[in-house]
Amino acid sequence: MKAALVLAAISLGCGGARSWIIAPRAEVPISMSDGLRAVDGHLLVPQEKHVVGEFSLDYKPWSMLFRLISFTGDKDISDEVNKQVKVAGGDAINNLQVFSGNCTWNVFTLVGVLPDCANVSIRGDIIKVSGNGRRVEQAQREVN
Amino acid sequence: MRATIVLAGLLLSACATIINGPRQEVDFRTAPAGASVLADGKEICKTPCTAKLTRSDEHVIDLQISGYYPYHLTMRNHGSNWILGDIFTGLAFMFVDLATGSCWYLTPEQVDRTLEPLMAHAPDDGRVRVGVALQPEIPR
């Protein structure tokens, strides 16, 4: 009994979730920095990049057994990227950021062997390119 | 002791509805001021302004003013921790919070944006270029 309590005690907070964000079918460049390249490889200057919207996507990955088993696995954001960039009239996404935090369910999972979740928020700037930079390097995809 | 627990349960019943209410105030500010704020395709105010948006839905926001690039974002709704108070009432009042939408909160809670002007600029090659933005079609 004492061993079980000790195990439960040291397992507290070992829950959470694990997943991977991918965008293999994104039709626009995605960057986690504020850099964006034209076809000829030159970095676009700020005057050629205009923020016309915010990319946002929230999801809740689930895992169990101390995150060893991921139920969510890969999170493909390609469709959301294509849709949101199109609606905003943009050409690319810059400054993509990923945030993760606790979800309410965490309070019910005292030990990591139970299924657990996390709240993941993805945010980025939707960029419209003007001038020479209109020819954006399509191959630039930097989602990790 | 039992009476205290019952009283606490009653006080916390549907607490998300009592504390939050079904709508959330969102502040909109832009530079320059005077931009139209469109929520789900309908103009609701001009910046700077505060609007009340339903918590139960996500909202597509567009900021528009002549001579500047428009700005587009989606307000996401997330679960409010106030709904945990419904546990004390055996979850009975959770349905009230869910029905009123009070168990959600919208992010971002305020929108403060500097809009980028549509303007000509002269890069290093000396040629002047004029940027023109087409206003995207707003889904209705």
Any descriptors?
heterodimer; A: 144 residues; alpha+beta; Translation Initiation Factor IF3; 5-stranded antiparallel sheet; two-stranded parallel sheet; 2 helices; elongated; disordered C terminus; B: 140 residues; 3-stranded mixed sheet; 3 helices; 10 strands; 37% strand
SSE inventory with pairings:
The complex is a heterodimer of chains A (144) and B (140).
Chain A: H1 2-11, E1 19-22, E2 49-59, E3 62-64, E4 69-70, E5 73-76, H2 78-88, E6 92-102, E7 116-129
Parallel strand pairs in A: 1-5
Antiparallel strand pairs in A: 2-7, 3-4, 3-7, 6-7
Chain B: H1 2-11, H2 15-19, E1 23-31, E2 36-39, E3 42-46, E4 49-54, E5 59-64, E6 71-79, H3 94-100, E7 104-107, E8 110-114, E9 120-121, E10 129-130
Parallel strand pairs in B: 1-8
Antiparallel strand pairs in B: 1-4, 2-3, 2-5, 5-6, 6-7, 9-10
What does this structure look like?
The complex is a heterodimer of chains A (144) and B (140). Chain A is of the alpha+beta class and 144 residues long. Chain A has one domain: Translation Initiation Factor IF3 (2-Layer Sandwich). Chain A contains two helices and seven strands. Chain A has helices spanning 2-11, 78-88, and strands at residues 19-22, 49-59, 62-64, 69-70, 73-76, 92-102, 116-129. The model of chain A is unreliable at 137-144 (pLDDT under 50). With 140 residues, chain B is of the alpha+beta class. Chain B has one domain. Chain B has three helices and ten strands. Chain B has helices at residues 2-11, 15-19, 94-100, and strands spanning 23-31, 36-39, 42-46, 49-54, 59-64, 71-79, 104-107, 110-114, 120-121, 129-130. In chain B, the strands form three sheets. Chain B has a five-stranded antiparallel sheet with strand order 3-2-5-6-7, with no helix packed on it. In chain B, strands 4-1-8 form a three-stranded mixed sheet, with no helix packed on it. Chain B is elongated. The N and C termini of chain B lie far apart (55 Å). The model of chain B has no long low-confidence stretch (mean pLDDT 78). Classes of the chains: A alpha+beta (144), B alpha+beta (140). Chain A binds chain B through residues 45, 47-48, 50-54, 56, 58, 84, 86-89, 104, 107, 119, 126, 128, 130-132, and chain B through 60, 69-74, 76, 78-79, 81, 83-84, 116, 121, 123, 129, 131, 133-136, 139.
